[in-house]
Amino acid sequence: MKDRTLLMIPGPIEFEPAVLQALGAPTTSHVSPGFIEVFGRALERMRDVWQAPTGQPFVLAGSGTLAMDCAGANLVEPGDRALVLSTGVFGDRFEDLLARYGAEVDVIRAPIGETVDFEAVDSALRGSSYKLMTATHVDTSTAVRVDAERFGALGRAHEVFTVLDGVCSVAGEEIRQEAWGIDVVLTASQKAVGVPPGLALLVVSQSALCAWGKRRSRVANYYADWEKWLPIMASYEKRVPSYFGTPAVNLVAALDVSLGQILEEGLETRFDRHRRLGTACRAAIRALGLVQVPAEGCEANTLSAPRYPAGVRGGDLLPAIREAGAILAGGLHPEIRSEYFRIGHMGATKPGDVLATVGAIEAGLRACGHTFDSGAGVAAAQSILFG
Ligand code: PMP
Q1: Cα of 382 from ligand 1 centre, angstroms
Q2: Which is the closest atom of ligand 1 to the Cα of 188?
Q3: What's the 370 CA to ligand 1 centre distance in angstroms?
Q4: CA of 200, closest atom in ligand 1
Q5: Ordered strands of the 130-136 beta sheet
Q6: C-beta neighbour count of 158 within 10 angstroms
Q7: Report field, pTM of the whole predicted structure over 0.90
């Protein structure tokens, strides 16, 4: 029997074979004509996937946190005011991060499982002197999705730069960066973008770049300074060799393949597929009698976060689910860590993967003594995926 346990955590995820083949291909020079073409094309494809035709893409070797750091380091100057909209652990991360660069940070923190109160955001922005505002599109610690269109509109209305952490959403949840007026949309390779961990990806608006160009102080982060990377990205797009720091050659090649697949699938089709996967997973969880962390109406489509039923412990359930064929993640939010688990369903996830996962969850729950109608979860998911 093929030794394969489905990796259904909220990143890293299962990857497409063609992406893994690109990763495993012989490494070329970072200035070889073949690689220059691949990198240039990947940058062009990022604009299409982010729906930001005039945006400036950046690809750096690093994880999603570096993408956050890169946005903070370049847009914040000491004394700038920043507003963080937090729906979980990753929103909170921005508070600390922006403060490191000297920002005076205010936080609007949503109760666990809820989205931010945009009326409160609007009044905070009214008459204030915030330079930038951050939001986490999907906070992976709560599975809450924030309305990114409204976030962009508020930023525009109040002339505040907007930074969207799309680590758990880009290429899975709908984002129209330019139409929605969002200045920075950042992500990492290992989630819905569909490439193994190791790339920090950002697309930056021209007006944010323009503000960066007028900084009074130097960027306090050497590696992440756009001054270093802007000429490199421009050269690759012009298909001209250049060097600042060695790019992650194989990961960039894999990124090019994955972005090509994403565009081939079609963004609307892809967003729809994620909506269907998310809806099916949530329906299955409900059918099994489990409550979910995100409140109704703000659930992400890229991951689900069910609470353990009474009497069931994560330390027993997750190994039992793994035994039945699916690797899931435990809780992450420190206040409720031991009360819930997380299921990723993004990127290459197929309907059959969700069915197999729900089947494994049923097996695990049964082994832990939870009672439910056998097959109810699979049937609920199936009726949405194939009904
Ligand atoms: N933001 C969000 C929403 C995330 O889910 C994560 C990773 N789980 C990060 C930021 C940080 O990314 P990384 O772990 O790649 O540094």
Answers
A1: 30
A2: 15
A3: 32
A4: 15
A5: 56-61, 199-204, 184-188, 161-165, 130-136, 81-86, 104-109
A6: 18
A7: yes
Considering the domain architecture, whether residues 34 and 109 belong to the same structural domain is answered as yes
Ligand 1 atom closest to Cα of residue 139 = 3
Q: Is-cis flag, bond preceding 12, omega within 30?
A: yes
**60 Cα: distance to centroid of ligand 1 (angstroms):** 15
Residue 324 and residue 255 in one domain? no
For residue 105, which of 127, 82, 130, 78 has the smallest C-alpha distance? 82
Question: Which domain range does residue 304 map to?
Answer: 266-386
Task: Name the residue with the closest Cα to ligand 1, atom 13.
Answer: 64
Residues 255 and 275 in one domain: no
Same-domain pairing of 80 and 90:
yes
Mutate to test the pocket of ligand 1, among 167, 191, 301 (most ligand atoms within 8 A of CB): 167
Distance 342 CA to ligand 1 centre (A): 14
Distance 279 CA to ligand 1 centre (A): 23
Short-list 303, 305, 279, CA closest to 291:
305
- Between CA 140 and CA 344 the distance in angstroms is 9
304 and 251 in a single domain? The answer is: no
pLDDT tens, per residue, the chain with 387 residues:
566 799 999 999 999 999 999 999 999 999 999 999 999 999 999 999 999 999 999 999 999 999 999 999 999 999 999 999 999 999 999 999 999 999 999 999 999 999 999 999 999 999 789 999 999 999 999 999 999 999 999 999 999 999 999 999 999 999 999 999 999 999 999 999 999 999 999 999 999 999 999 999 999 999 999 999 999 999 999 999 999 999 999 999 999 999 999 999 999 999 999 999 999 999 999 999 999 999 999 999 999 999 999 999 999 999 999 999 999 999 999 999 999 999 999 999 999 999 999 999 999 999 999 999 999 999 999 999 998
- Number of domains making up the chain: 2
